[in-house]
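USER: If only I could read backbone structure tokens as easily as an amino acid sequence. It would mean a lot if you studied the pair and described how this chain folds. Here is the record:
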Amino acid sequence: MLSNKLRKQIQQLNRKKYRQQWGLFVAEGEKVVQDLLAAHYVPVHLLATKPYENLETISISNAQMRSISHFATPSPLLGVFELPQKAIKTPTSFHLVLDQIKDPGNLGTLIRLSDWYGLNDLVCSLDSVDCYNPKVVQASMGSIARVQIHYCSLENHLKSLAGPIYFADLNGASLYAQPLQTKGALVLGSESHGISPALYEVAHQALTISKQNKNKACVESLNVAVAGAIFLHEFFRP
């Protein structure tokens, strides 16, 4: 049975302050929920509009699922999970570093890209969107269960790295003409502001995706998730 108390709590978990207050987050979708369970995330509630073998769920109606879903088109399965207790560490393998990424869809896609290319960690600035925002979790398509996401001071983090540091920068050298190493980190900034000026004090190599359309009326920049996909493809090209 879906109580009014549980309904209200699930709705409020759309906000970061309540996720932190209760130590919980919401995941919607069969694949996302199943991937989190497989990664040993701890479920507090599983709510479903149909039966699932080997899952203990609270059976609810489609109308009730619509009342608690954070999306226009609800999934038949929604989970409320405990926030994981993660140890703070410095990633030792190649990873993405994200500066001021505000859009949940972009962060979710970049988590998914990290998973696709076998990157175990992803580092975000403290002012980036929370990775347990329901829209981030949904956009990651379950990859959030396999990629460790860290929030920290990016300046301190980058200074601690031993490998090369690459910046995605419109004024950088062509991505396609440089030798690339899958060590260190690739830094991506927000579409609105780019990479924070303070980070440029850290030794780095600036790279850009060469624009082929020379028309001045052409689009000025790429979506950060699209740019991340192009960069990672080039770094991991066979």
Observations:
- Residues 3 and 83 are 22 Å apart (CA to CA).
- The chain has two domains: 4-82, 95-235.
- The mean pLDDT is 94.
